[in-house]
């Protein structure tokens, strides 16, 4: 397993309410010259968490931080006019908190960040530091393998 010390939150920068598939994101990233989707996990509008790039592979989501981070992206991040907006559904908020908490169990020295802390972007369109300031490891109810297998099968959290 890679040495992980950062969990970086992103958004797809798509209009509120528009679902986006992992295959679409993969296509966007390939068009930009990446070798596939750059995020490790995607949180859909209904809260379903889907695996993107395998966790043991270096991501392509935050220049200068990819080798030591996990990239988690929620679908949304723009209003209907394309302006930055926190468009997370309640289900996305819950799933994002659960995923971050679970990863903090396994990478207890990791810190949680928004993409905008490392790039001149609005992404993820909310204040990650404020929201996750009290994030702590979850109550480990499953081991990492079971957790990741659940995510890889699109299991709803």
What does this entry look like structurally?
By secondary structure, the protein is of the alpha/beta class. The chain has a single domain, classed as Lysozyme-like (3-Layer(aba) Sandwich). It is 25% helix and 17% strand. The protein has 4 helices and 7 strands; from the N terminus they run ββαββββαβαα. It has helices at residues 22-31, 90-106, 128-131, 144-152; strands at 6-11, 14-15, 41-43, 49-51, 69-74, 77-78, 111-114. The protein has a 5-stranded mixed beta sheet with strand order 4-3-5-1-7. Strands 2-6 form a two-stranded parallel ribbon.
In a nutshell, what does this entry contain?
The protein has 157 residues and is of the alpha/beta class. The protein has helices at residues 22-31, 90-106, 128-131, 144-152, and strands at 6-11, 14-15, 41-43, 49-51, 69-74, 77-78, 111-114.
Number of helices: 4
Shape descriptor reads globular
Terminal Cα span:
23 Å
CATH architecture grouping: 3-Layer(aba) Sandwich
Bin the helical content. Answer: 25-40%
The topology string of helices and strands comes to: EEHEEEEHEHH
What is this structure's SSE topology?
Layout: E1 6-11, E2 14-15, H1 22-31, E3 41-43, E4 49-51, E5 69-74, E6 77-78, H2 90-106, E7 111-114, H3 128-131, H4 144-152
Parallel strand pairs: 1-5, 1-7, 2-6, 3-5
Antiparallel strand pairs: 3-4
Keyphrases for this structure?
157 residues, alpha/beta, Lysozyme-like, two-stranded parallel sheet, 7 strands, 25% helix, globular
């Amino acid at each position: 397993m890679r040495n992980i010390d950062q969990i970086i939150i992103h958004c797809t920068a798509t209009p509120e309410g528009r679902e986006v598939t992992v295959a679409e994101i993969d296509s966007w990233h390939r068009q930009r010259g990446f070798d596939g989707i750059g995020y490790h996990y995607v949180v859909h509008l209904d809260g379903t968490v889907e695996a993107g790039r395998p966790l043991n592979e270096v991501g392509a989501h935050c220049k200068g931080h990819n080798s030591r981070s996990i990239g988690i992206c929620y679908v949304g991040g723009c209003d209907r006019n394309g302006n930055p907006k926190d468009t997370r559904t309640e289900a996305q908020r819950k799933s994002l908190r659960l995923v971050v908490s679970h990863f903090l169990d396994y990478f207890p020295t990791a810190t949680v960040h928004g993409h905008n802390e490392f790039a001149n972007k609005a992404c993820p369109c909310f204040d990650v530091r404020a929201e996750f300031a009290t994030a702590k490891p979850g109550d480990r109810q499953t081991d990492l393998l079971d957790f990741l297998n659940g995510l890889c099968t699109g299991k709803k959290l």
